[in-house]
Amino acid sequence: MTKAKQEALREPVDRSGKPTMVDVARLAGVSAMTVSRVMNGKGLVRESTRRKVAEAVAALNYTPNQEARNLAGSKPIRVGFLYSNPSAAYLSEFLVGLLTQSGLNNVQLFVEKCEAGTQEAEQTRRLIENGLDGIILPPPLCDSEAVLRCITEAGVPAVVVACGLPDARVGAVSIDDYDAAYRMTRHLISLGHQRIGFIVGHPNQTASARRLEGYRAAIAEKGADAAEELVVQGMFTYRSGLDAAELLLSLPERPTAIFASNDDMAAATVAVAHRLGLDVPGDLTVTGFDDTALATTIWPELTTVRQPIAGMAREAVQSLVRRVRAMRDGEPADPEQITMDSELVRRQSDAAPRIRPPARLPVTAGTRSRAG
User: Fold this and answer.
1) Contact, 239 vs 268, CB < 8 A?
2) What percent of the chain has pLDDT over 70?
3) Domain boundary among 41, 70, 99
4) Are 189 and 302 in a shared domain?
5) How many helices (H) and strands (E) does the chain have?
6) CA–CA separation, 243 vs 232, rounded Å?
7) Residue 103 maps to which CATH number?
8) Which of 121, 191, 179 is nearest to 149 (CA)?
9) pLDDT by residue (tens digit) across 130-176?
10) pLDDT at site 358
11) Is the pLDDT confidence value at 4 over 70?
12) pLDDT over 60 at 185, yes or no
């Protein structure tokens, strides 16, 4: 490292009284070098550490010394964020993560909405023409072959987020959707549920299939009811959740629990249950997936799988920054495939199934009791 770069990273005390990297490090309880790694996207840093640094930056309203960055050769990185009609709650969390990490990493963020369908490739090409260093794709575009082909043909690094089966040509940040759905289904079975409905996500998204596979694996392993009528197609939207829940709750033998592939469809299921006069969770357990803000704004609050949406967005920025900086330095820059942890979060929407006493059979004259 050159002397100029060392001086830039050191970032001496700002005599104007503005907070410095040393102040951020002190508040976060880490070293100044760790803060530097977080802000420059170099080296793997634990998610908990990145969060501490981000919180310290926000608390101090810290702005990196631009002169120091220029001396260190930290040219801004231009990143495009292309999205297409995800859940509003999901998009909100994703943007929080993107904006937080972009500020830390000297990233200029270009946000554009892409209408799904025939215009995907054209809008992607238009975004690339802005001279981007990289692109981040959330669901459902993370599974769009047209978008991925356009990006790879242009030679632009990309990171897909929350993709069930990431393309090897691009970087990826995801959770294990199969394992998360498997664990939630096992949890419901452990409560005593045997007849568990499942609302599948959008059929064009690979995460939907992985979650369905996890549900089915747990059902088969524990010998629960595997009737096909218990699996209903959804689209990851609230409206589709209403339709799916109505189908499941109109079955002659309705399920005692419904596991929806995202929180929007789970919230819709709770609404249908209430309309039908069913108590949640007394008459029906309902669980979701994602742990967006919606999970705690309805009643009862949802038991759900916590997918670290904001954290995944931050990690996507970090991964892309590492790759772009390596490419600028002429170093190997293969796409990173990163798997983050998920968590089952219990709240008020799940319970053991209500046990009804068996009907009493009439006693005939010739019947003897076991005790007698």
Assistant:
1) yes
2) 84
3) 70
4) yes
5) 13, 12
6) 9
7) 3.40.50.2300
8) 121
9) 899 999 999 999 999 999 999 999 999 999 999 999 999 999 999 99
10) 43
11) no
12) yes
245: left (phi over 0), alpha (psi -120 to 50) or beta: alpha
- Per the CB < 8 A criterion, the answer to whether 280 and 270 are in contact is yes
Instruction: Indicate the residue type of 236.
Output: F
Closest C-alpha among 120, 216, 209 to residue 165: 209
**Which backbone phi and psi does 243 adopt, to 5 degrees?**
-65, -45
**How many Å apart are CA 240 and CA 262, to the nearest integer?**
11
User: Within 10 Å of residue 76's Cβ, how many Cβ atoms?
Assistant: 12
Cis peptide leading into residue 281 (ω within 30°): yes
Same domain? 155 vs 194 = no
Q: What count of residues does the chain have?
A: 372
Q: Which two tokens stand for residue 76?
A: 């801004």
Structure tokens at 346: 């219990």
Is residue 289 over pLDDT 70? Answer: yes
Q: What is the largest CA-CA distance in the chain?
A: 103
Question: For the residues 26-31, what does the mean pLDDT come to?
Answer: 88
The most confident of the ranges 120-134, 261-275, 313-327 is: 261-275
Half-sphere exposure of residue 302, counting CA atoms within 13 Å on the CB side?
Answer: 31
Collapsing DSSP states into helix, strand and coil, what is residue 155? coil
Minimum mean pLDDT among 21-30, 109-118, 124-133: which range?
A: 109-118
Same domain, 298 and 183: yes
pLDDT tens digits, residue range 247-263? 999 999 999 999 999 99
CA–chain centroid gap for 10, Å, is 35
Q: Are strands 257-260 and 285-290 parallel, antiparallel or unpaired?
A: parallel
Instruction: Tell me the two tokens of residue 10.
Output: 């050191």
What are the angstrom distances between the C-alpha of 283 and each of 225, 349, 352? 18, 10, 9
SS3 call for 291: coil
> What's the domain range around 263?
177-306
**Same domain assignment for residues 251 and 233:** yes
Give the chain's domain count: 3
Q: State which of 46, 70, 94 marks the end of a domain.
A: 70
Q: How far, in Å, are 140, 167, 173, 174 from residue 163 at the CA level?
A: 8, 9, 8, 6
